[in-house]
């Protein structure tokens, strides 16, 4: 800790809100709603830790409140010397971001590569648990599902092209960084994904309130994929008809569970830890 | 359906945003953040259905978009004749509420009585499952936990006095009306609640990442209380030391689960349906 590392020598203090180096951080909230790219915003220390230790993502730059620098020595050591660390006052940070950034730590991250479902699956061990999402377009739900996938060590998450981007700012935040941690692919139709899973010898269990078996009776498999659809519509009927289906046993009197909660229950049931 | 019921004869059309009858609906969002009372806002058709069929809550009035009246025949029949149903245009509704009310259905609800934990427990059957919350102050989490309690038919929810109000607008909405459905008490310290549970012969299982047993190994009990604390701090140490504890088995490498997800997993494990 006292090895002579001086944070103030690593950081670039910026006093002018119009400094072009701050452009990627400008109006984060608005850009979030309209655009998407290979770049994303990471917020807070926990997410920054995940980003800086990721093999699939890298930091482009950091933006830190001057009052937070002292607690970040470990992160600044981990940060490659080519990655600039900008430091500003609270006023400047809030003005740039477009809202009050109370955690005081932002980073611009970038994805190095976007593997296909087939590429992800080909690298998995003989025993593997995969989470498959069809049509999940709510960022909170996607973030929560990734958090659960990390907690129960799902090997990857496969999302069809109608799912929302897990690198959306809110999805990353709700996931506590898990969208940067659990390998995922988001491309193709759900049928493409099912075909890739079948080629790799995965058994699929589709979760549905009308599923044929209770998840507690349904057998596991060495290579198991758990498939989740939206809360309202559910999974496409044609898909449910040709897949093995399971339900989370619950009251007949109440609306279905939230899909993220359902993923937590099913992942817990089929994880290697249970 | 065609029995001559005419919604337009049941409703009071209001064209003036300053009409004093609309006062309870004014600036809903702001009042939500500062005050609380026995009154609350119910939003949307599903929540309205729960409110209108509740024994513990009653509607004071309804405020409906004129374009939504046609789909509400069933609800208007259920609504006691003494409860006024106001009807406005979208402009007036948005102006009154202070935001765009896209579901177009609001109601002011009122709690009839607030039973104590002891009163709630004394009415439970020999086999019962109770959810106990200590210090859960996030409205999303409280709403989600109630949704799970309803899905798995927990008999009631007991909250210590440091938990937030489950009648907060967002908690009701996230719970899909379950905070109006599952009986609850919110009063006293967690020690008071533990004492009331013990008097009624409940076994308590405290959920904690450092719990002694896996939830899948921990035995159930005819009368079982599941205790959940906050995500950050967790349950008070003194409490954990004297209670039976259980953990949801998961990765050692990742941050703990969201408390609402944890409640879903534990309730599913110990519910009568599993």
From TrEMBL, chains A, B:
UniProt-listed Gene3D superfamilies: 3.30.1330.30, 3.40.1280.10
Record domain tRNA/rRNA methyltransferase SpoU type: where: 129-267
GO BP terms: methylation; RNA processing
GO molecular function: RNA binding; RNA methyltransferase activity
Entry annotated with the keyword Transport: no
Signal peptide: none
Official protein name in the record: 23S rRNA methyltransferase
Protein species of origin: Paramesorhizobium deserti
